[in-house]
Amino acid sequence: MNDVLVAVIAACEIGFWVLLAAGLVTRYLLKLPKAGMVLLAAVPLVDVVMLVASVIDIHRGAEPAFKHSLAAIFIGVSVGFGHQTLKWADQWAAHYLGGAPRPAKPPKRGPERARRERAGWFRHLASYVVGVGIMIGLGLLSGRGYDAVLAPAGTWTLVLVIDAIVSFSYSFDRDREKQSV
C-alpha cells in the first residue's frame, strides 16, 4: 500500500473541493438546497477515508513516514478550519450564484480584527492538536515509535508560534483606542 496511501490522500483532497463545489452548485444553481446540504455534509467524510487509509497502511506494516504525517496534517486542518471554509465558500456562492448580498469585508483594524485573528489562531491550535495527536496515534499503532511520523510537527510548532505572535499582536494595536471612541 506504499503509493496507494499517497493516491488516497490526493483523491481525498480533490474530493474535498469537488464535494464542496458540487454542494454549492446544487444548492444555488440547481436550486436544490436540501440536496446541496447533503453534499456539503459529506465533505468531512473525505477525512474519515483518509484516516482509515492511514490506519490500514500502518496496520499492514508500513513504516511510519511523511505520507502519514501529511494525512494527519490534512485531517487536523480540516477539523480546525473546515467549518469556516465551508461557511466562507457558502457566503460567496450565495452572493455569486444565489443573488445574496456581497459578504462583508473583514475589518482591517480594531477590536473586531483582533478577535478575528485570535479566533483564527485558536482554530490553528485545534488543527495542530488534532494533527499531532493523529501522528502520535499512528506512530503508536505502528509499534515502531513515532519519530518519523512526528518529524513535520517541529516545523508546524514553529509556524504555530509565529502565528500566535502575529495573531495576538492585533490585540495591542494602537488604533484600537481610536476606533472604540
Task: For this entry, give a set of tags.
181 residues, mainly alpha, 7 helices, flat
Describe the 3D structure.
It is a single chain. The protein is mainly α and 181 residues long. Helix content is 81%, strand content 0%. It is built from 7 helices and no strands. It has helices at 2-29, 33-41, 45-59, 66-98, 110-142, 147-169, 175-180. Helix 1 (2-29) runs antiparallel to helix 3, helix 1 (2-29) runs parallel beside helix 4 and helix 4 (66-98) crosses helix 6 (147-169). The termini are far apart.
Strand content: under 5%
Oligomer: single chain
Total DSSP E strands: 0
Summing up helix and strand content along with how strands pair, one would put the structural category as mainly alpha
Determine the N-to-C terminus distance.
Answer: 62 Å
Q: Percent of residues in helical segments?
A: over 70%
- Overall body shape: flat
Element order, helices and strands? HHHHHHH
Largest sheet descriptor:
none
Q: Determine the number of helices (DSSP H or I, runs of at least 4 residues).
A: 7
Mean of pLDDT: 92
| Unreliable stretches covering 5 or more consecutive residues | none
- Estimated radius of gyration: 20 Å
Give a short synopsis of this structure.
The protein is mostly helical. Helix content is 81%, strand content 0%.
